[in-house]
Each structure stands twice: as C-alpha cells, then as structure tokens.
Write a structure and sequence with these properties.
This protein is an alpha/beta fold. It has helices spanning 54-62, 99-102, 112-122, 137-148, 155-162, 189-204, 223-235, 263-274, 276-290, 326-341, 373-380, and strands at 2-10, 24-26, 48-49, 52-53, 67-70, 94-95, 105-106, 125-130, 173-176, 212-215, 245-252, 297-305, 346-351, 362-365, 368-371, 388-394, 398-399, 407-408, 410-417, 420-427, 433-441, 448-454, 474-479, 484-488, 493-498. The chain folds into 2 domains: 2-10 and 389-498, Golgi alpha-mannosidase II (Immunoglobulin-like); 20-386, TIM Barrel (Alpha-Beta Barrel), CATH 3.20.20.80. The chain is built from 11 helices and 25 strands.
C-alpha cells in the first residue's frame, strides 16, 4: 500500500542561495578517524596517495566536500600545532585528549602540512579549530602566520617552506575555542566571550578582515548560553576582533543499537533528528535579539547520530565507532533538507565525523574500506550546492510524540540551478510508500526526471567489509505524463533532477 501526498514547489518564494558549506565535514584525531582510517602512511601496502587512503580520497573527491574541520573537537584542547610539523620521525608521541578513554597515543604523523595536503587532494577548504584553553593567543597567532604568510616573508613562513610548503595554505576559517562550556575549560558564557575577545584580538592583528573567526556557542538547546554571550557581545562591540560565526553542537541521542532497533526506536531517532529545527530556530532567535542584522552566522559544526559504542567493524577498538543503517541515512537526509530550507540562517555545517566514528561517511581498517549509507545521502544531495532554494510545502501526515513538535512523514527541500530543479524527499514512514504529486507554482516542470533512490527492504541493513554494497542507490529515468508524480518507498530517500 501507499499513501497519496502532495508537494508544492513555490518558485516565487526562496530563502536564497544554498551555500555549499552547509555540506561540510569534520575530522578529529580521535579513535580511528585518522590512523588506519584516513591515514595509512606512505609505506603501507594499502594503496595511498602521499599516505592517505587512496580509495577514501577518490570517493571523497566525488562529493566535492566544501570545507573540512580539523583537528578537533576536544582533541584541539590539548593540541600544540608545533608537534605536527617537521620531519615525521622527529615528531613527539603524546597522550592526547582522548587517552583516558582508549589509552591510544597520538603519533602526530598527520599534522598541519599533511592535513592541508589532504584538503588540496579532495578540494575542501580547511577549517582549523584552535584551542584557547591550553595555548596562548600568541601560539595561535603564530600558527596563523605559519599557515598564511607569503613565501619567505617571515621566519615562520620560511620554516613552512623548509617543511615542504613554500606557498601559503590560505586558511580562512579559524575556530577559537571548542565546547568551552565543557571540556574546553568549563567556562561560563561570559568567561567564554571574554577569552574569545582576548584571543581573536591578538590573532586578528595579522590581517584585519581576512580571517573568519568562529566562537564557541552552545551545547544542544542551551539557548541561555547563546543569549548571554550575545548580550556580552552587544554590550561592548569590539572593533579589533569581528566574529564571523558562532558554533552550536547537537547530536541525536541513542535509540536502541545501530543495527538492532524497534519500530518505535526508528521514530524516536527521527524525532530527535527533527529537533534540529528548534536548535537552529531558537538559537537564531536569541542571536537576533542582539544581532538583528545577522552579522554573526550560525555554524552547526558538529551534528549527527551518537549511538552506543562497539557496533563498527573494529568491535570497539576505535573509540565511538558505529555502524550506519538506513535510519542514520534518514537522519542525514532530514538534516540536510532542514539546512537547505534554512540557508538564510545557517552559515556552515559539519557532519561528525568523516571516518570510523560517529555518523561516519566511511568505515576503514587495513585493506578494507566501505562507504556508509550516509555517504550516499551526501552524494545524492549534491545538486543543491550553490542552487537557489525553492519554498516547499507538503500535506504529508504528522506524527506526534510527547516532548517533541509534530513530525511530518515527508522531509523535503528543493533548489534550482543551471536550468534544473533538484528535489530531495525522505519518506520517514517505516512501513508505507508515498505517492508524491509535485505541484509547481510560478514555473513549469519538464516532463522527464532522473531519480536516485536509496532504500533497503531491511531498515537495519548496513554496508560492511564483507558486504560493502548492501545499501547503495539505484537510478532510473522517469517520464511524467499529465502530472508529475513519483513514488518514494517506505523508509526511502529520493533525489530528483528535473529540467
């Protein structure tokens, strides 16, 4: 059986251009994200490009990542960038932030130069998360000078050249502080903003206006944190340290195991994902009280599902590694649709994390490598990047759950670019397909479409080293007759390109 629904595409209404940075990524030095994940080393038997896993590099290139955040996360709070430069064999072995969790040491094989090389390989813009809990303002300022000053212009620029990169890295995005409400110093909002002012003032003295500084915002729905730091910002608007963005972190909590959840837990996870609407809307409303011109952008630089440990192929060795099923892919689709429809509010977003961790696009180990269903969602949604958002509405049924806002069973976003419409639809209904009638307002739709669908008969299915292609998209060409209608399968995700 299937349910009849309508989706209205109103070409007369738009929130603006969908910035590609809404499709950003995050790579922290935690567990197996880098070591035996992204990085295998130049001498590895695993095919690699200058030490980075070749299969992952080539796969990541295909989805054109706009920006990649590094090296943390919490890892940044005890990271000294000088540990990761110079001859690799001379770099120190350190106990990093996560040592108390897994007792793994940081070899510093991947440092600034390697990370920048990876960004160049895949075409991503680097977003460096610098800490303001264990380094001084001058330490971060020197890191910026090391990364960005012209070849041979200063001692640090010369040192960069001696280490293999004479030309500057041109890093624009700098996070000053990470989760300062928690592991980043247990600060109050006021303490956080005072420290941010101090650090960013010193760092901005290098080249006023060139750098985009991102300050630490709230944990989840802690709107009071946002209101308090914005109040402090508004009461003493400083000129030396402009703020480009404020970060917010939100993870969907556990609802059963990644591959062992009930129908009720399927919907519980999706209600949690939909809570991102309140995260974005309520924080922006609090920011607007003090920043009505929206000079400061909202940056959701950590998001995704956070399941219980141990479901990934490393069987718990890689900290926080988890498998991803169609339920995780559905969360990714819902979240990206939400960001598309709030492209006037969200300035950047970074899914956490890239490999062998939370909500990952990849799982890897040794010679093994697999793309998760999350990866395929990012691939399917590529057409939205840089497109003009189109207002959409649907008459799909609503679900209700105590403690949450009503949740529609269709998640939709649309955009237009280069004479084509990209329409992405996620059917949250676990048991019923939806027959979707498309109703355009202001423009006509062509009579043909390419449709990519991601689904599986078993919503618990995932891609493993043994079955790497269990959950993959299918493609088909559709010819519309009198009406533009498509069928989105139960628990399925569809992406349409319509001329």
């Amino acid at each position: 059986m299937s349910r009849q629904t309508e989706v209205v595409l109103n070409f007369k209404k738009s929130k603006g251009i969908i910035d590609p940075k809404l499709y950003g990524h995050f790579s922290e030095h935690i567990g197996g994200v880098f070591y035996d994940g992204l990085w295998v080393g130049e001498d590895s038997k695993v095919p690699n490009i200058r030490g980075f896993r070749k299969a992952l590099v080539e796969s990541f290139q295909k989805i054109a990542p706009p920006v990649l955040r590094w090296p943390g996360g919490c890892f940044a709070e005890t990271y000294d960038w000088r540990d990761g430069i110079g001859p690799r064999e001379q770099r120190p072995l350190r106990a990093n932030w996560w040592y108390s969790h897994d007792h793994r040491l940081e070899p510093n094989a991947v440092g600034t130069h390697e990370f920048m090389d990876f960004c160049r390989m895949v075409g991503a813009e680097p977003y460096v998360a610098a800490n303001m809990t264990s380094l001084t303002p001058l330490d971060i300022r020197n890191w910026m000078e090391y990364c960005n000053f012209p070849a041979g212009s200063t001692t640090l620029a010369k040192q960069r050249g001696e280490n293999g990169d004479p030309e500057p890295f041109n890093v624009k995005y700098w996070g000053i502080g990470n989760e300062n409400w928690g592991g980043g110093g247990q600060m109050t909002p006021e303490e956080n903003i005072w420290e941010f002012k101090r650090y960013s003032t010193i760092c901005n003295s290098l080249d006023k206006g060139q750098y985009h500084f991102i300050m630490c915002g709230a944990n989840g729905h802690d709107v009071e944190w946002t209101r308090r730091i914005m109040k402090e910002w508004a009461s003493s608007r400083w000129h030396e340290a402009p703020v480009w963005g404020m970060s917010v972190h939100y993870y969907c909590g556990t609802a059963g195991w990644p591959q062992d959840f009930t129908e009720d837990q399927w919907y519980q996870q999706l209600f949690q994902a939909d809570f991102m609407r309140r995260i974005v809307d309520d924080h922006r409303a609090a920011m607007d009280e003090f920043d009505p011109e929206r000079k400061i952008k909202l940056v959701v630089d950590e998001w995704g599902c956070w399941h219980k440990d141990g479901s990934g192929p490393s069987k718990g060795y890689n900290l926080f590694e988890q498998q991803s099923s169609m339920r995780d892919a559905m969360v990714a689709a819902m979240t990206l649709n939400l960001f598309n429809n709030r492209c006037d509010v969200v300035g950047m977003a970074n899914v956490a994390q890239l490999c062998n961790n939370l909500h990952s696009l990849y799982l890897a180990g040794g010679e093994h490598f697999v793309e998760t269903p999350n990866y395929h969602v990012f691939d399917m949604f590529q057409g939205h990047k840089g497109g003009r958002q189109i207002d959409t509405s649907t008459d799909a049924l609503y679900l209700e759950r105590e403690g949450f806002a009503p949740l529609q069973t269709l998640s939709v976003s649309a955009s237009e670019k280069d004479g084509a419409v990209t329409l992405t639809i996620a059917n949250l209904d676990m048991s019923q397909a939806q027959e979707v009638k498309l109703i355009p307002v202001g423009k006509k739709l062509g009579n043909k479409a390419e449709m990519i669908t991601l689904r599986h008969d078993d919503v618990h299915a995932c891609n493993t080293f043994e079955e790497p292609f269990a959950v993959v998209p299918s493609r088909t060409e559709i010819a519309f007759e009198k009406e533009a209608c498509v069928t989105v399968p139960a628990a399925g995700i569809a992406a349409l390109r319509i001329r």
